[in-house]
Amino acid sequence: GAGVSQSPRYKVAKRGQDVALRCDPISGHVSLFWYQQALGQGPEFLTYFQNEAQLDKSGLPSDRFFAERPEGSVSTLKIQRTQQEDSAVYLCASSYGPNTEAFFGQGTRLTVV
Amino acid sequence: GIQVEQSPPDLILQEGANSTLRCNFSDSVNNLQWFHQNPWGQLINLFYIPSGTKQNGRLSATTVATERYSLLYISSSQTTDSGVYFCAARYNTDKLIFGTGTRLQVFP
After folding, report:
1. What is the pLDDT of residues B21-46, one digit of tens each?
2. CB atoms A45 and B33 under 8 Å
């Protein structure tokens, strides 16, 4: 596609609900990243894939957060039993390969009520 | 740990003014990017600049990797330049580490 596409753009979840956020990277991009951006802060790294391999998940805040990219293209970030502190914008980025320019999607704004 | 710091944190300009934003990083970087986050939250790529100088219209950037800093220059600022500017650095791993951001407001 022309750019990184994320869906949904907005999600309101009740505390305790599970949510799934989708990222469609730029076609042919090998590397895919997930970031979390709290209000007024810079993006914080969550996890990184190279093709289908999850090479770094050091930024996932708890075991309630899980990401997958089974076919090396589309990725899903799943948050189980959502809590209020999970409210943030979740950003996805992709790049052609390691150490190349990264491009970001528009993000998914998650609000947990 | 690895640090990416930006200054100033806030900047208020009148339309037409010039400005310089600074990004300091604590270790040697593999590459560095500058982004503009618009009021709708979209991160827009400005420069991919591990070293040297690049220019794009009214914007230019310089990275001096050996001295661990990068500068973003905005000339003849416009109200549409308002938003938050982030630099982000890549070190040995592939993840981008973002700076603290500079919030720019340009008034007519």
Report:
1. 999 998 888 889 999 998 888 999 99
2. no
**Burial of B21: CB neighbours in 10 Å, binned 0-12, 13-18, 19+:** buried
The minimal CB distance from B90 to the residues A56, A99, A106 is found for A99
* Chain A residues within 8 A of B34 when measuring between CB atoms: none
pLDDT tens across B56-83, in order? 999 999 999 999 999 999 999 999 999 9
Question: A11-14 long-range contacts, Cβ below 8 Å, gap at least 24?
Answer: A11/A108, A11/A109, A11/A110, A11/A111, A12/A111, A12/A112, A12/A113, A13/A82, A13/A110, A13/A111, A13/A112, A13/A113, A14/A82, A14/A112, A14/A113
